[in-house]
Amino acid sequence: MLSLIFSQWHRNDEKDTNFQEILKSLCLRAQCLKQTFPDVIPMPSFLQKIRFKSVWERMRLQRDYQRKLINFHKDTFDPYMIRDLTDQLMMYVENGDDKGLFASDDMENLLLEISGSGFEETAITLTWLLGYMAMYPAVQGQVQKELDYVVGRDKDPCLDDQALLPYTVATICEAQRMATVMPFLYPHQAVKKSMLQGYDIPKDTWVLCNVWSIHYDAKYWKNPKKFDPTRFLKDGKTVLIPDFFLPYGLGMRECPGQALATLEIFLYFSHILHHMIIRSADDTHSFYMEGELDSFLHHKPKPFLIKAIKRED
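Now predict its structure.
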């Protein structure tokens, strides 16, 4: 994410002190949000201040560092050479596309939010994916066979390969369906009295969408408890995404980072399987994962042990 926002970041930046400080900020924020439901159940302002004091301090430090990078971009900005998202935003403002409504603080806050987008959900999805590969070695083998055929062994997968790897993409989709990391979408509230499929919904009623029920409904999915990537393939060659597949929600409140999260998960997953074979820690075929809900209603796997074996070139 930081490479997309600030192109100065490279592969070895995880050794950089500033990078570690930003990572601490994101981890702390994720941990804090899991403790209660700050966006669902309001808390007294004085309790919010106590609870989020350390988070705000880390966000301030991250803003200070980002401000330095933004200033560097301003000093070196070239409209004919867009390097990253920061340059794109500056071009957006300079061309007047924001109609004078985009302030400097808006850019800082937006970049701060984007840097942590999908931080928790992407990690949970990848954890499920690795566990499923240990559970279903035949599926893993098919993904690796496709990667070897399309990408080859002498280079890494890239975004251009995604359209040519339908089984790999279908495997990711099936893992998202089976895991359903967000079993319930964020609560909505009826702004007026409504009726939905014969049910009266009074004004101000909280409404939750049960995505888990949809993803395991036998009316939509044949053998819904079976891990089967081919359900997302048409004629075994083309990825087909049905309307009742909702890992990112639906409609106006659909996750705005869906496209970005999809690319991130694809790159991580394809790189890992391109280089590693995932097995259960004891090499048995009885490996099985169990899920649990954390306090922020993420469906995540309980801790499990696997091993990664380097593939031969």
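The chain has two domains: 2-115, 119-310.
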